[in-house]
């Protein structure tokens, strides 16, 4: 733990940086580039000057209760014990920085409730400014935000340590975990503690995912069952994807229509495919109607949930390639068209250039991202002309 004199000096130095109209390279290096960038984004966001608490999400979206929420059920007691023993508040946020679970020691409970650092609290950077949850999700790395590095003055007496929670199989970021206490208790081991809590959640995820089906449909399609890659034909992956999108199940005729449309393929061929799948999945494929009996997670379902929740950046990060690019299934082609339409709509509402540039790197033909970047880039900026030329060439 740093002594009080050092901590006071750190606060005073940060305050000088906050009051400065511009920072030198040396000062930016002292503060940390991630904090500097976050301050810049916070200043550009339309955050009320008098905001003292995070907005609260009034309605729970049960549709988004996925793997992370289930894993949390298995380790919540252990995480709560850590919070109580360390006199801290601990919170788990989803990919959009909305807190889905929290626990606090008596010392921190009132402070947490006052600023809505509780379940339902929305800690997106564009809503409350610089904070560890949003910063860790943005950088996909562990983050510490000390005292007046926070944007909201109501949490200048806090220090927060956060670490992303990463899916063991897909390697996608599923959420974030944060440990917070008062600034006077700042400890260089705080980040390690947050990372340890993230590993507890990831271990619970790993145990849970040993009994589930995970489908990747963006870029290179792949299926994992009980934690292992399953060798399947493209047609079998299409079938599983259709059933993942239709959890209520489909009868043979409906599944045939969804998969083949008007193509002349016999019912017997589809029955044979289903028999092979049932053998591979060990009884996790139900019939009458055909449906998946295992718990299903999929990158395309995560992307859809992110769009439903308004988390454009997360959705774009998940869409790392075309959804089942080679499929001829009318159902899957229609679903892909719908997803791409929703993504395009979200792109035209996006305000962060770096997110759009990353999306453009995966999709060079994404003219909607180019158009939005042109809108966001000042006319006199050199990049504006480059983007105009790019649009003409494509």
UniProtKB/TrEMBL annotation:
UniProt GO MF annotations: DNA binding
Matches recorded under Gene3D superfamilies: 3.30.450.40
Transmembrane segments: none
Biological processes per GO annotation: regulation of DNA-templated transcription
SUPFAM superfamilies (UniProt xref): C-terminal effector domain of the bipartite response regulators
Name assigned to this protein: Transcriptional regulator
């Amino acid at each position: 733990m740093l002594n009080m004199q050092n901590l006071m000096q750190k606060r005073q130095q940060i305050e000088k940086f906050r009051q400065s109209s511009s920072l030198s390279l040396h000062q930016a290096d002292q503060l940390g580039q991630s904090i500097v960038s976050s301050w810049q984004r916070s200043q550009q966001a339309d955050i009320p000057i008098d905001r003292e608490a995070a907005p609260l999400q009034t309605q729970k979206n049960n549709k988004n209760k996925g793997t992370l929420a289930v894993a949390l059920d298995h380790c919540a007691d252990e995480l709560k014990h850590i919070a109580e023993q360390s006199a801290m508040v601990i919170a788990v946020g989803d990919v959009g920085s909305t807190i889905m679970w929290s626990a606090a020691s008596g010392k921190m409970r009132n402070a947490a409730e006052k600023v809505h650092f509780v379940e339902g609290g929305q800690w997106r950077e564009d809503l409350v400014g610089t904070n560890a949850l949003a910063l860790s999700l943005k950088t996909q790395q562990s983050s510490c935000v000390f005292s007046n590095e926070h944007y909201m003055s109501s949490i200048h007496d806090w220090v927060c340590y956060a670490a992303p929670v990463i899916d063991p199989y897909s390697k996608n970021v599923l959420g974030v975990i944060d440990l917070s206490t008062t600034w006077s208790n700042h400890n260089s081991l705080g980040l390690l503690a947050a990372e340890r809590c993230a590993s507890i959640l990831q271990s619970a995820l790993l145990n849970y995912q040993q009994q589930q089906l995970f489908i990747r449909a963006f870029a290179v399609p792949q299926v994992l069952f009980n934690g292992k890659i399953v060798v399947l034909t493209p047609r079998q992956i299409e079938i599983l994807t259709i059933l993942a999108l239709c959890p209520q199940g489909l009868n043979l005729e409906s599944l045939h229509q969804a998969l083949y449309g008007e193509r002349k393929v016999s019912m017997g061929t589809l029955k044979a495919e289903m028999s092979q799948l049932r053998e591979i999945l060990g009884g996790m494929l139900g019939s009458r109607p055909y449906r998946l009996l295992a718990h299903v997670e999929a990158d395309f379902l995560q992307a859809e949930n992110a769009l439903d929740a308004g988390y454009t950046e997360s959705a774009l990060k998940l869409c790392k390639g075309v959804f089942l690019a080679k499929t001829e299934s009318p159902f899957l082609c229609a679903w892909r068209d719908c997803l791409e339409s929703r993504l395009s709509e979200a792109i035209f509402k996006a305000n962060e250039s770096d997110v759009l540039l990353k999306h453009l790197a995966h999709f060079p033909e994404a003219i909607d991202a180019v158009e939005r970047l042109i809108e966001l880039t000042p006319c006199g900026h050199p990049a504006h002309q480059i983007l105009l030329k790019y649009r003409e060439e494509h």
